[in-house]
Structures are given as structure tokens and as C-alpha cells.
């Protein structure tokens, strides 16, 4: 059965982690589902069912259960996948956290999500312990996952209650005695804030599976496919669009720790991968490598990319594969898809709306604009349980995004005469850098805490790799000084590495409207026109630690 057929016939009420995994064991129990390339570990569907049962029962013994919120701070590894599966089986709520996050933002995610437990790789444990005793009283359990770092289990964790991951894996292999409904919350996935802190998007058990099943139906994935996953599992694209997608379809996943340009095609080739996902910046990096006679020697038949690079046709010819594309928001749904059957001259668009989804382009008053005219993209998903379920503990933000019965994306786009949607840019105060949506607000909040800074504005600058780099304009306090390297070191210690500004611009004041709103478009235009006026971290040879 094709995965798209499954999407049409699957019983919605059966879309829970326990039921989906049990169903795949009955159909494909001895088929390898997960192949972890860094160390060669293989897991069949039956293995993952057994091991996730053991972990689930171990978590129940620790006092966790239905409704418990459990954060996950890891890079790609089998233990991360098992954690998601086990939490789903006991009706707990998984809270994936970007592995680059530290300091105030890590504290915010754990606190705002009401997490009472945390899975953390040993390499990141010091970040957690540094958050102090107050949060330790809230996060009552920390499960430490061993990795290749020198950090091992310690004797003293201060106020934190830490246990080794392996200590939870000695429990029963029987399914945990928990009744889980398809309606139960399964995840809180954070998306970058624009005018405020990052928002946690609520996902029910059913929506975690419908996300990937929508991809499969729209793009034509098959149960015989092998998904190559090197993008991080704390993002919706890799976790739901690939791993959960493969799980519902009976396909397989080849998991890599992260993206490496020198390793990408060897991984794809050696694993026999047939489908993959990548960000536009990854395509730029791969395209920039020296051609090889081996470039087209692989089984990859399609790769989902967003945004689609301008050299897409040349890329397809050189690497003997095809691009597909689309548009989706963690906040709401996956709304559009560009497929292998669409005309080649539509490559670069996000495709047409998926089954059951409506899309419009409107002006600031929610009136439709003419065909091919740019406006805001708004969506309405009519598939049962397919639409976004709001932001966790942010009812005002949830209501603000839904006006006149439509979800307002905040993104600018146009729809052509054939119904294809062309993404133009983000209307929100967000910066897209190498696949990460960065909140300008959160960058500014960190920088403004520096005692020498009176005001600051973060804004995007076009990157040579596609998408954007982060720039910051800074107004210093009278009588204070601050060097660029000192600023970067301060930022690096207090935010994720990908948020740290590449460009710094010193200004006497920020351009503002009559209502005192910063005119960031002016900062961008002036900076693009005179890049020599900016201090460039890369040109200065400053290397960030991760």
C-alpha cells in the first residue's frame, strides 16, 4: 500500500504512538527501521517497540505519566528517537529543545513549558546544572544520556536529581499500562518569537502523525523508501516530516548526527537512501564543492528543499536527482507541495495547496489581492485534526493568529494564475539563517542586557550561502565603550551559536517611525548598500564555539 493510500484510509482515532508502533510491528516487525550511521547501530520495528516499552515503564517508575512535560536536549541519536516514542506511549508531552540553546533561553524553554523532567546528552549537562537551584526544584528529574564527550556521570549534581539513561532501560518490555487518546497533547515545539518570546506550538498525538502523512500523500513517498535524516530532530521537518512519516508508512530511516557537506553524498550512497530533506543553505554548500565523477552515483530519487535554490535545474542534472518543495509552519500545518509531477518551470515555487487546505493572499484588511500580487498568506485547514492547536499558555497569541476564520502566517507571498504559491519573504521580525528561524526580539533582549548598550536592533543581511545572516545595530550608553570581539563573546555565552550576530554596526541612534517603531528596513537597505561600514565576524576570523 502506498503511504498516500494509508493517509486516506487510516482511522484517525488509532493515531497514537502505542497503536502506530504496534501496527508496524505486526506488519514489518523484523524490518530495519532505524540505521544510526555514526556507530552502525540498527533497530528493527520490533526492537524499537521493545526498547521504548522498557523506557516508558522506567519513566512510569520515576513518577512520570500522562500529562507530564519532559524536555529533550539532544542532537540526533537513537536515544533521542526512543525518548520521543516512550513519552508518546505514556501520554507524556515531549518538549524538543534546540541543542544549541543555553543560558536564559534554555531557562525560558524549561520554565515556560512547565517541564518537570529532562533528557539531556552528557555534553550539554553543564548548561543545565548552571541554571541554578530554583529551576532544579521544578525540573525534578534529569535523565543523562551518555555520548562521546568526556563528560560522564558525576558523583554530585548539587540540587539536581540526575539518573543515567541505562538505569531506566531495565524495566519490563510489556506495553506500559496507560490509556492514551489520539486527542492528548504529545509535543510542545517552539517557534521563534517576533514581537515577544518564542511560542510553544501544541501538537496532539494525532497531529504528530498527520504532519508526515500529509507529506507522504502530497509528495509520493513510499513504504520502500529509505529516509536520509541529517537535519536536527528538534525541528518539525526532520522529526515529523521524516521519522514519524517513515514510521506510519513502514519505511526506514538512516540517521546521521548532523549535516556534513563532505559526508553527505557518501552517506546517501552507502545507506542506499532514496529520499532526503535539506535547507536551501545546504544545497548552496553542496553545489559549491568541486564536481566529482561520483556525484550521480546514488539511489536518491528526490530531495525536499526549502527554499529552492536558483540553480536547482543545474543541481538536479549534476547530482542526478529531483527536487520537491513545499511550505509549512510549525504553528499551523503543511499547506503547499511542489511534486515530481509539477511542470519544471514551476520549480522555485512552493507548489499548490494540499488536500483539504485553502490558501488566500490578502491585504492588511484581509481582502483578497489580485492574482500574482504580493500580500499576506493566510490558511484554513479543513482536514480533521490537521490544523494547529494554538500556542501553549499564550491564548492571546493563539487568538491573534486566527482572524476572520483564517490562520495568518505573517509571510508575504503571491499565488499565480495556475494556483502555485511563490514565497516572497517574512513579514514577521524573524531572520532565517541556514534553516533556523531566529527571533530578532530574542537577539536584542540578550544584547540590551550588556551594561554598555543603551539600545539595539537585530536585522537580516543577505548571505552568500542563501537566506540571511544576523546583523545588529547598537547604540552605546554615554561614556561607555565596547569592542566587537567582546560583544561577540558576550553573545556567544548567552545565546545559541546560530543567533550570534555576524555583522555589527555602531550607530548614534536607531531610525524610527513617528510611533517610535524601529525602521529595520532602513537599517538593512543602508547596510546592504555599504557593507564596508559593518564589522564582519567572519572577516575578522572570530570562530564561535558550539
Q: What would you say this structure looks like, in words?
A:
The chain has 546 residues and is of the alpha/beta class. It folds into 3 domains: 17-26 and 38-180, 3-Layer(aba) Sandwich (Rossmann fold), CATH 3.40.50.980; 207-426, ANL, N-terminal domain (Rossmann fold, 3-Layer(aba) Sandwich); 439-536, GMP Synthetase, Chain A, domain 3 (2-Layer Sandwich), CATH 3.30.300. Helix content is 30%, strand content 26%. It is built from 16 helices and 27 strands. The strands form 6 sheets. Strands 2-1-11-10-12-13-14-15-16 form a 9-stranded mixed β-sheet, sandwiched between helices. A 5-stranded parallel β-sheet has the order 4-3-5-6-7, covered by helices on one side. Strands 17, 18, 19, 20 and 21 form a 5-stranded antiparallel β-sheet that branches. A hairpin with a 7-residue loop joins strand 8 and strand 9 (199-204). The longest helix has 17 residues, at 45-61. The chain is globular. Residues 1-5 have low confidence and may be disordered.
The backbone outline, from C-alpha atoms, is globular
Structural class: alpha/beta
Strand order of the largest sheet: 2-1-11-10-12-13-14-15-16
How many beta-strand segments?
27
Q: What's the CATH architecture name of the largest domain?
A: 3-Layer(aba) Sandwich
Structure annotation, total helices: 16
Highest-level CATH class of the largest domain: Alpha Beta
| CATH fold assignment of the largest domain | Rossmann fold
Low-confidence stretches: 1-5
Count of discrete domains:
3
Estimated radius of gyration: 23 Å
The profile of the biggest β sheet is:
9 strands, mixed
CATH evolutionary superfamily of the largest domain: ANL, N-terminal domain
First-residue to last-residue Cα separation: 44 Å
Can you give the mean pLDDT?
89
- Tell me roughly what share of residues is in helical segments: 25-40%
Q: Classify the beta-strand content into a percent band.
A: 25-35%
Amino acid at each position: 500500500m502506498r503511504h498516500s493510500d494509508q493517509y486516506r484510509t487510516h482511522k484517525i482515532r488509532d493515531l497514537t504512538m502505542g497503536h502506530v508502533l504496534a501496527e508496524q510491528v505486526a506488519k514489518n516487525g523484523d524490518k530495519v527501521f532505524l540505521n544510526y550511521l555514526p556507530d552502525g547501530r540498527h533497530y528493527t520495528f520490533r526492537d524499537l517497540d521493545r526498547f521504548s516499552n522498557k523506557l516508558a515503564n522506567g519513566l512510569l517508575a520515576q513518577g512520570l505519566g500522562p500529562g507530564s512535560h519532559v524536555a529533550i536536549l539532544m542532537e540526533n541519536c537513537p536515544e533521542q528517537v526512543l525518548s520521543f516514542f516512550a513519552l508518546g506511549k505514556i501520554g507524556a508531552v515531549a518538549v524538543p529543545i534546540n541543542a544549541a540553546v543555553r543560558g536564559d533561553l534554555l531557562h525560558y524553554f524549561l520554565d515556560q513549558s512547565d517541564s518537570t523532567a529532562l533528557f539531556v546528552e552528557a555534553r550539554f549537562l553543564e548548561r543545565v546544572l548552571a541554571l541554578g537551584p530554583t529551576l532544579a526544584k521544578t525540573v525534578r528529574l534529569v535523565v543523562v544520556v551518555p555520548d562521546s564527550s568526556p563528560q560522564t556521570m558525576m558523583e554530585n549534581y548539587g540540587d539536581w536529581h540526575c539518573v543515567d539513561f541505562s538505569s531506566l532501560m531495565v524495566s519490563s518490555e510489556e506495553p506500559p499500562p496507560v490509556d492514551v487518546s489520539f486527542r492528548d497533547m504529545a509535543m510542545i515545539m517552539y517557534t521563534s518569537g517576533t514581537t515577544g518570546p518564542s511560542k510553544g506550538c501544541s501538537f496532539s498525538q494525532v497531529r504528530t502523525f498527520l504532519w508526515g502523512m500529509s507529506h507522504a500523500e502530497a509528495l509520493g513517498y513510499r513504504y520502500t523508501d529509505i529516509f536520509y535524516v541529517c537535519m536536527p530532530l528538534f525541528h518539525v521537518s526532520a522529526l515529523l516530516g521524516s521519522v514519524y512519516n517513515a514510521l506510519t508508512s513502514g519505511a526506514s530511516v538512516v540517521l546521521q548526527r548532523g549535516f556534513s557537506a563532505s559526508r553527505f553524498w557518501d552517506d546517501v550512497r552507502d545507506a542506499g537512501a532514496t529520499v532526503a530533506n535539506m535547507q536551501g543553505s545546504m544545497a548552496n554548500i553542496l553545489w559549491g564543492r568541486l564536481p566529482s565523477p561520483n556525484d550521480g552515483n546514488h539511489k536518491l530519487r528526490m530531495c525536499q528543499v526549502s527554499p529552492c535554490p536558483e540553480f536547482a535545474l543545474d543541481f538536479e542534472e549534476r547530482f542526478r536527482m529531483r527536487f520537491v518543495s513545499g511550505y509549512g509552519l510549525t504553528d499551523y500545518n503543511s499547506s503547499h507541495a511542489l511534486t515530481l509531477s509539477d511542470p519544471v518551470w514551476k520549480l522555485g515555487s512552493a507548489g499548490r495547496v494540499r488536500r483539504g487546505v485553502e490558501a488566500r493572499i490578502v491585504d492588511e484588511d484581509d481582502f483578497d489581492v489580485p492574482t500574482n500580487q504580493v500580500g499576506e498568506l493566510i490558511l484554513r485547514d479543513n482536514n480533521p485534526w490537521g490544523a494547529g492547536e494554538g500556542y501553549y499558555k499564550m491564548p492571546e497569541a493563539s487568538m491573534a493568529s486566527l482572524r476572520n476564520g483564517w490562520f495568518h502566517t505573517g509571510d508575504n507571498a503571491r499565488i499565480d494564475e495556475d494556483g502555485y504559491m511563490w514565497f516572497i519573504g517574512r513579514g514577521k521580525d524573524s531572520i532565517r539563517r541556514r534553516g533556523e528561524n531566529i527571533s530578532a526580539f530574542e537577539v536584542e533582549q540578550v544584547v540590551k542586557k550588556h551594561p554598555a548598550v543603551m539600545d539595539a536592533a537585530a536585522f537580516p543581511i543577505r548571505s552568500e550561502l542563501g537566506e540571511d545572516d544576523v546583523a545588529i545595530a547598537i547604540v552605546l550608553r554615554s561614556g561607555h565603550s565596547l569592542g566587537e570581539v567582546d560583544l561577540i563573546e558576550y553573545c556567544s555565552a548567552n545565546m545559541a551559536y546560530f543567533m550570534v550576530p555576524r555583522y555589527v554596526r555602531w550607530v548614534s541612534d536607531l531610525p524610527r517611525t513617528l510611533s517610535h517603531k524601529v525602521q529595520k528596513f532602513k537599517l538593512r537597505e543602508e547596510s546592504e548598500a555599504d557593507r564596508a561600514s559593518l564589522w564582519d565576524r567572519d572577516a575578522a576570523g572570530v570562530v564561535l564555539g558550539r
